[in-house]
């Protein structure tokens, strides 16, 4: 979920949440706070020893994210598929290396067609609660977000 924070201000300014994949592609977003909490539990308890755990959050589309952002933030946010070439050009402009750009050039078309979905059951089991929803994440970010002057 936190991967959208660097462009949070731009999203608020433009009213558009953009990614380089289809707005209806399902993605299992995970809150890094949940990952940290789960890691602490797993590393601090021998009952998890030698385990391999997929940590995924609830599945959500870019379109659904925009609806939640609109509702929570009280301003219209639309979902839009950013052309892959724009994403790659931006990555190059901010210094991504050739390997990263090559990986992104393969990753986003895969997401576009298949999404990236995992089960949130394992993370919920480790946490002892349901994983953080995108709405809860947005409410937390909005509480602390201060636009740049």
Helix/strand order: HEEHEHEHHHH
Radius of gyration: 17 Å
How would a crystallographer describe the biggest sheet? 2 strands, parallel
Mean pLDDT over the full residue set = 94
CATH class: Alpha Beta
Number of separate structural domains: 1
Tell me which CATH architecture applies here: 3-Layer(aba) Sandwich
Order of neighbouring strands in the sheet with most strands? 1-4
Beta strand count? 4
CATH names the topology as: Rossmann fold
Shape: globular
CATH superfamily: NAD(P)-binding Rossmann-like Domain
Distance between the termini: 25 Å
Helix content: 40-55%
Which regions have little confidence, pLDDT < 50, spanning 5+ residues?
A: none
What would you say this structure looks like, in words?
By secondary structure, this protein is mainly α. It has one domain: 3-Layer(aba) Sandwich (Rossmann fold). It has seven helices and four strands, in the order αββαβαβαααα. It has a two-stranded parallel sheet. A two-stranded antiparallel ribbon has the order 2-3. Helix 4 packs antiparallel against helix 5. It is globular and about 45 Å long. The model has no long low-confidence stretch (mean pLDDT 94).
Sum up the structure in keywords.
single chain; 149 residues; mainly alpha; Rossmann fold; 8% strand
What's the layout of helices and strands?
Elements: H1 8-14, E1 16-19, E2 27-28, H2 32-43, E3 59-60, H3 62-73, E4 78-81, H4 84-93, H5 98-114, H6 121-127, H7 134-144
Parallel strand pairs: 1-4
Antiparallel strand pairs: 2-3
Helix pairs in contact: 3-7, 4-5
